[in-house]
């Protein structure tokens, strides 16, 4: 998809906000605990390479991604820090990962066996760094029993192509005020890791929510994700221990303004019909940019005033009700501040009955990212 540089719609990323969020967490960590910045899904829509650079400047010592291609993007951009792929990769890619010094998440011993065969053939100059994932209750990937875990650890110990670099789990409810299930997962983690005779270099259980509200669990590494972007992992359920600064705003301009009279309709399906004479503005953004179709009835800001989105959000455009006529080129704020009003990703997520992660990750590459500060 092309980037829409000849259109007045853009995501604006505040580098200083990113830096402040990450540095604030780095300063809270106990001595010997490292922060790996999670930059998967194009840095939660903010731009992976740009976020990684800011994170490094703010004190991050490594990165986490979801898929191998995201790790390779960081290597191609010149980052030499440790990178952990959190998702399961293909065993045949083990030699490439070893060559690029990219760490693999492993959730089953048969993956190790398959990867070892490929590594033995390729004979890379360094072993593949392995992090064993434990399923303590997330139900996604990982070893579930002490027998499975000890088998994997024994295999790692006897195969020089593989190095046991880390072990981790992921908490499903660290962002919930109810700690019942969280404590069950902690107990399962402790039972599983008790069979280890030797700890690997990295032991990590903390995502943003765990590090913010359960810092005692941090061990020697945290995977800092959504909070680094200034978004509260719990939504509004639990106050953050320090002020998070949202780093993303979304702006555009009016490209057209017209007057409609009572009885005239706007948009696909004619779902909005004017009850009186009113001004309607058109904004060049739509669901092809990741601006959700379900945001019909939500609002934007024009000249510091709240303006409702009327009619269905189109693929490339949307229409808003204006208090009066405005000139073409008038600024429209879809996320961020204009005057006394602010629109947050959290507000949008609440309106869409989803989470802010989904909306941030959904902004497509057609929207240019502009970096400031």
TrEMBL record:
InterPro entries: Ala_racemase, Ala_racemase/Decarboxylase_C, Ala_racemase_C, Ala_racemase_N, Ala_racemase_pyridoxalP-BS, PLP-binding_barrel
Residues forming coiled coils: none
Reactions performed catalytically: L-alanine = D-alanine
CDD domains: PLPDE_III_AR
GO cellular component, one term: cytosol
Magnesium as UniProt keyword: no
A Pfam family per the record: Ala_racemase_N
E.C. number: 5.1.1.1
Residue ranges constituting the Alanine racemase C-terminal domain according to the UniProt record: 247-372
GO biological process: D-alanine biosynthetic process; peptidoglycan biosynthetic process
UniProt binding sites for substrate: 140, 315
Cofactors (names): pyridoxal 5'-phosphate
Keywords for this protein: Isomerase, Pyridoxal phosphate
Active site residues according to the UniProt entry: 40, 268
GO molecular function list: alanine racemase activity; pyridoxal phosphate binding
Residues with the N6-(pyridoxal phosphate)lysine modification: 40
Pathway assigned in UniProt: Amino-acid biosynthesis; D-alanine biosynthesis; D-alanine from L-alanine: step 1/1
Keyword Nucleotide-binding listed: no
Broadest EC class assigned to this enzyme: isomerase
Family affiliation: Belongs to the alanine racemase family.
Annotated function: Catalyzes the interconversion of L-alanine and D-alanine. May also act on other amino acids.
The protein, known as: Alanine racemase
Organism this protein belongs to: Levilactobacillus brevis (Lactobacillus brevis)
């Amino acid at each position: 998809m092309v980037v829409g540089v000849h259109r007045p719609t853009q995501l604006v990323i505040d580098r200083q906000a990113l830096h402040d969020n990450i540095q604030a967490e780095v300063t809270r960590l106990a001595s010997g605990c490292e922060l790996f910045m999670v930059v998967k899904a194009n840095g939660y829509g903010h731009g992976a390479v740009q976020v990684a650079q800011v994170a490094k400047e703010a004190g991050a010592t490594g990165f986490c991604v979801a898929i191998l291609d995201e790790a390779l993007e960081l290597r191609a951009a010149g980052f030499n820090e440790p990178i952990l792929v959190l998702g399961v990769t293909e065993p045949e890619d083990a030699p490439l990962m070893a060559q690029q010094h990219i760490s693999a998440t492993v959730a089953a011993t048969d993956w190790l066996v398959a990867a070892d065969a490929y590594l033995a053939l390729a004979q890379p100059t360094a072993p593949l760094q392995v992090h064993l994932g434990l399923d303590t209750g997330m139900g996604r990937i990982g070893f579930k029993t002490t027998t499975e875990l000890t088998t994997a650890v024994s295999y790692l110990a006897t195969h020089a192509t593989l190095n046991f670099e880390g072990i981790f789990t992921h908490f499903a409810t660290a962002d919930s005020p109810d700690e019942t299930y969280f404590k069950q997962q902690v107990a399962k983690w402790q039972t599983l890791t008790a069979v280890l005779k030797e700890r690997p270099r990295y032991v990590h259980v903390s995502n943003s929510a765990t590090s913010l509200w359960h810092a005692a669990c941090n061990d020697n590494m945290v995977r800092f994700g959504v909070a680094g972007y200034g978004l509260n992992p719990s939504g509004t359920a639990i106050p953050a221990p320090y002020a998070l600064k949202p780093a993303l705003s979304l702006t555009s301009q009016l490209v057209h303004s017209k007057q409609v009279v009572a009885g005239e309709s706007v948009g696909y399906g004619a779902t909005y019909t004017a009850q009186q004479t009113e001004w309607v503005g058109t904004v060049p953004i739509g669901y092809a940019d990741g601006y959700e179709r379900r945001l019909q009835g939500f609002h934007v800001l024009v000249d510091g005033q709240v303006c409702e989105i009327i009619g269905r959000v189109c693929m490339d455009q949307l229409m808003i009700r204006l208090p009066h006529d405005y000139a073409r080129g008038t600024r429209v704020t879809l996320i961020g501040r204009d005057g006394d009003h602010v629109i947050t990703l959290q507000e949008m997520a609440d309106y869409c009955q989803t989470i802010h992660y989904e909306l941030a990750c959904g902004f497509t590459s057609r929207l240019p990212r502009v970096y400031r500060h």
